[in-house]
Amino acid sequence: MGECSETAGEVLLQQPWLPVCIGDGRLLAKAWFGDIAYHILLTDMRCVWAETMDSSAIQKRAQELNKRLRAPVAAFYSHLREVALPCLSGLGGGEAEGEAQVSLERGGAGQGVSIRLKSELAGLPFHWEFHCTPPPVDTQPTHHTAPPPWKDAAFVRTGNPQNDKPPKC
Prior knowledge:
By secondary structure, this protein is an alpha+beta fold. The chain has a single domain (2-158), classed as Beta Complex (Dna Repair Protein Xrcc4, Chain: A, domain 1), CATH 2.170.210. Helix content is 33%, strand content 30%. A four-stranded antiparallel beta sheet has the order 1-2-3-4, sandwiched between helices. A three-stranded antiparallel beta sheet has the order 5-6-7. Helix 2 (55-65) crosses helix 3.
């Protein structure tokens, strides 16, 4: 996963944190989806969680979670990217017709978070779980150097940089 992680890491450094609502949770997210690999970062401003997957790991998890579906990894991944990207970029995540059902499960202190997606692929149920865990310590400060996006917008609107609450879902 070395090249995937390096490319994803470089791209994620350039991306702003985006506010997302996943289930009942309000988080900030950065996501990179390559050809058949992804890297996501999530934070609640107290903890940071990440997951990086390459094609072989995606294929293994897809087969474990979707035993009735038989498809090449590219088909699984294409569908995963189509339903996950709107959720992780703040553009969706609801349960409207045709969209994925999304839920968030938080572990205890110092543990990870899981995002569960349910949708349909070729008329069959499609399930995916992102298992995000705390990344290496050297990753966290790099991605927290920019202020949260709502602070920038709040400062421009009101001239008051003290507004440190994310927007409501």
